[in-house]
Amino acid sequence: MPHRIPSPRKSLRALLRNRSGQALIEAALTLSLLCTMLLGAFELGKVAYAWIEVTRAAKAGVQYGDRNVNDAVDTSGIQTAAANEAPDISGLTTTSSVGCSCSNGGTSTCLNTDCPNSHIIETLTVQTSATYDPGIHLPGLPTTYTLHGKAVQMVLQ
Length: 157
Hints:
Blueprint: H1 8-17, H2 22-65, H3 69-72, H4 75-85, E1 93-102, E2 120-132, E3 145-154
Antiparallel strand pairs: 1-2, 2-3
């Protein structure tokens, strides 16, 4: 008896009824999606931790400089305090500036003669920034992140 070749329509119906590999394919697709989501969450956590360190570095710098007027202009001391607070962050840049105003609301250029009827209020601002590479690079997410921190504090007179 000759061997009959099934029609394409019957073969397609037979394939659609056969579900033996469906669970394996669904598991593979689900696991790949789950792994991508977990890696993305891990990357986000690393970036958030680095941002916290950069922000804490700015706070440490401003805490160093707010003790007195001389420390407020000690940029190398402020930079060292900030770098010590964020040892895991490489390439941390720190800038600081001092602004003055009069206690009665007037403007001041930080000269002793600027506020005749009130006293001078000095404010120290420390800004930090760093470029962070989390090490995991997922499609659709940046490969590096620029993180910024800022702290403002009045300087003790």
